Amino acid sequence: MAFKIIVCAKQVPDTNEIKIDPIKKTLIREGVPSILNHDDANALEEALKIKDQYPDTHITVITMGPPQAKDLLIECMAMGADDGILLSDRALGGSDTWATSNAIAAAIGKLGGFDLIFAGRQAIDGDTAQVGPQIAEKLGIPQVTYVADFSIDSDMKHITVHRALEDGYEIIKIETPCMLTAIKELNTPRHMSIGGIFDAVKKDMPVWGAKDLGVDTDREVGLEASPTNVYRSFTPAPKGKGIVIEGDTDKELADRLLINLKKKHVI
Length: 267
Ligand SMILES: Cc1cc2nc3c(=O)[nH]c(=O)nc-3n(C[C@H](O)[C@H](O)[C@H](O)COP(=O)(O)OP(=O)(O)OC[C@H]3O[C@@H](n4cnc5c(N)ncnc54)[C@H](O)[C@@H]3O)c2cc1C
Known about the structure:
The protein is an alpha/beta fold. The protein has one domain: HUPs (Rossmann fold). It contains seven helices and 13 strands. The chain has helices at about 40-55, 70-80, 95-110, 130-140, 195-200, 210-215, 250-265; strands spanning about 5-10, 10-15, 20, 25-30, 35, 55-65, 85, 115-120, 145-150, 160-165, 170-175, 180, 205-210. The radius of gyration is 23 Å and the shape is globular. Bound molecules: flavin-adenine dinucleotide.
């Protein structure tokens, strides 16, 4: 039986190109190119490496977003994923991380069985790193986040990962089915192939809405069901100019620093 991998991938604005509206202080999204979230490209690459080694592997990419998120699925399939599912519906719009993970977990449930779920650690726009762990919780499967190295035994059951920590890593053994979230140290994502692009654009791409997912639009998905409220969003005011203390000797520098700190009543 095929080894089934699900990759969760999000289309995000290319942040290098983001501009802030100077008056409204909000992101200017018009004309900003969208890209496959970086960590999600690493998640997909690791799934593709498993498929390279064990061809009887099936990779399904799931994304939730507006209709244009279909371009992301084409990109993922052109890289080598077998198929893609777009979760797109007005009723899903305005979902926070909790509601997003409800929708994605419902989609995974509908697919009926998997061995491994790969997500990115974090999306570069929302930046919460919550969606992967929330999906695992909702599906009741074990998870390891911050995966920087991955290997799977030929029994396709036992996985060993390096989980990155601030000052090193821990080695964790985990069994399928499970959820892993990838970071950029895991691998270097491959490019799309020309043949892959031709095949991908011809493929059927199911679009599932709230009804297909069987989720409650009042309580599980969408803005109203989302427990998070954004009260204000702003760009922090730039900090004042720093003071450079100059002096010829260490003692002179220390004395001047002391005088400055006393002046400011820090000490
Ligand atoms: C009140 C509220 C309203 C919102 N309304 C909207 C809205 O109308 N439109 C909108 O675009 N955003 C909206 N958002 C933002 C949206 O909730 C988040 O973008 C989304 O939940 C993902 O969170 P994140 O970006 O922090 O992802 P993270 O948790 O940082 O992502 C971790 C990983 O989870 C996976 N993942 C995350 N999101 C998706 C996805 N959509 N599809 C597939 N995989 C995914 C990826 O693998 C990703 O690397 C809203 C947020 C709030 C709080």
